Amino acid sequence: MNKLSDSNHPSTRLPLSIKGVLIHEGQVLLLKNERDEWELPGGKLEPGEAPLTCVTREIWEETGLASQVEFPLTPYLYDIAGAGSVLIIPFSCRASNFENLALSHEHKEIGVFPLADLGKIKLPIGYRKVIQEAVTVKRSKLRA
Asked: Which domains are assigned to the chain?
């Protein structure tokens, strides 16, 4: 087999980022990164870690919130300008409230934004789409 077409060759692997969409009382929790973009809490899998464990661990580490996974959302590729692509694996999560938030050293700011105001902040389109997907799925479950 050609080394470049080998699925185990490093050039064929994409980094993964497991993200959590936390919506409470019409507001979404976001974190400001080093690129001055708002993003969802989350991060990389640790060796042997399951994605569901990863997302709740990352939410705890980055915000101080205990959370539970509700359902998976649509994965997508995010192109970080000049740094390549990352496969985003998002999940809708829930927390009982957004009180006592604790900002980790990994981010510049922590914020809670009304869903209607997301167009006013620097938030990548992929995050906007999965937030909207989470809202849509939650609404459809309430109607069922």
From this structure: 15-143 (3.90.79.10)
